[in-house]
Amino acid sequence: MSLPPDLQARSGGACELCHSTDGVEAHVVSPREEAVAVCGPCRAGVNGALGDLHRWHCLQETAWSEHPAVQVVAWRLLGQIGESWAAELREQLYLDEDTAEWARAGEGAGAGSGAGEEGAPGRPTVDSHGAELHSGDSVTLIKDLDVKGAGFTAKRGTLVKDIRLAEDPELIEGRVNKTVIYLRTEFLKKA
């Protein structure tokens, strides 16, 4: 898909993620019909083939774009990278409510897909009481948990907001004491 005139004008003909001018095309950011301008390597990453993770350090600038479609793509990519710098940057980003909902709606099977939430198909992620959990929910710890490698104990009663589901339905990802960690659902209660 070539660049429509409005996207050409907005991007200046350059990739809105890495600023390359080679092979730039429009990429529709599902589930909406808005597009971003991306080069070939960024298009591959948006479609789930991240390749060399060092190339994605460009998102440290791009994530702060004023354009919601670019913010959504950057937020989704940061969630796929799996490195601490990316998780920290993703946590720092401010997305307005509408943009955050859009970002979460397409997260799961590639940054550009319209797939739903992560997790094993047919097996929901549930808390210790059997309540189904979804990305964006808040949970409370029901037990003190030693966080290995981080040097602190997550105390019982701690509220963990805006969780993300993991591929394993027995785990969720959340931020405790400014650290992104995985938590076992057997130690959580939906807030």
**Structural class designation:** alpha+beta
What is the string of SSEs from the N terminus onward?
Answer: HEEHHHHHEEEEEEEE
Please, how many helices?
6
Report mean pLDDT, rounded to a whole number: 85
Strand content: 15-25%
Q: Order the strands across the largest sheet as they lie in space.
A: 6-3-10
Region (Disordered): 106-133
Protein name: PhnA protein N-terminal proteobacterial domain-containing protein
InterPro entries: PhnaA_N_proteobac (IPR013991), YjdM_C (IPR013988)
Domain PhnA protein N-terminal proteobacterial: 6-47
Write up what this structure looks like.
Residues 6-47 form the PhnA protein N-terminal proteobacterial domain. Pfam families: YjdM. This protein is of the alpha+beta class. The protein contains 6 helices and 10 strands. It has helices at 5-11, 40-46, 59-62, 68-81, 84-92, 97-105; strands at 25-29, 34-38, 139-141, 145-147, 152-154, 159-160, 164-165, 171-176, 179-184, 188-190. 26% of the residues lie in helices and 20% in strands. The protein folds into 2 domains: 5-105, no CATH class; 117-191, SH3 Domains (SH3 type barrels, Roll). Helix 4 packs antiparallel against helix 5. The strands form 4 sheets. The chain has a 3-stranded antiparallel β-sheet with strand order 6-3-10, with no helix packed on it. Strands 7-8-9 form a 3-stranded antiparallel β-sheet. Strands 1-2 form a two-stranded antiparallel sheet. The longest helix has 14 residues, at 68-81.
